[in-house]
Amino acid sequence: MIHRAENLSKEQLDKIRRQVGEAFVSNELFHNWGSEEERREDVLKYMSLYVDYVYKAGELYVNDDMTGYIGLEDSAGKPKFMILVMLIKMLIRIRYARIKSLLQYANQLSGANGQYAKQRHIDALMVCVDKQYQGKGIASELVTYAKEMADEMHLPLLFDTDMKEYAAMYEHLGCELYNTITADNGVTRYSLCYHKD
Question: By residue range, what is the domain housing residue 182?
């Protein structure tokens, strides 16, 4: 069963930070930061700060055994101050050149989900399954939960990914691939949407 993450201990939050960080080291989002080994330390820092933001915003959902995580954000209630705080912390803890390249890349891809993002929607901020538990249906359970939330709120659910295999997984789970855009660095952003017919 999926539920909002609340009152996590420091150990539980550290576990989530570590698992999410490790899952994203290979993500094309960090393509410009070098090889996986060259970027590992900064990706772990980046994703740790991102997990903190999602958790503190009340947007982190977990399964009962804490092997799967999803961030879900209502676009009407984005905590802008918390986003600013997260960005400042990133600038302090991660090399400026890396943050700058990431922001340039993000800027090139910012309109990828424009078809649906102009209206109120739910953003899937991240989907992550502990590597030891992948292939056991946990990602499907997380996405199903997100779809049910979107149905209850009568809102489209948006997924953006830089990984072709994840885009294929979301399509398999009932989402529509409605746009792709490729940045100057060769990385492609796949934008997908789920909405009840």
Answer: 2-194
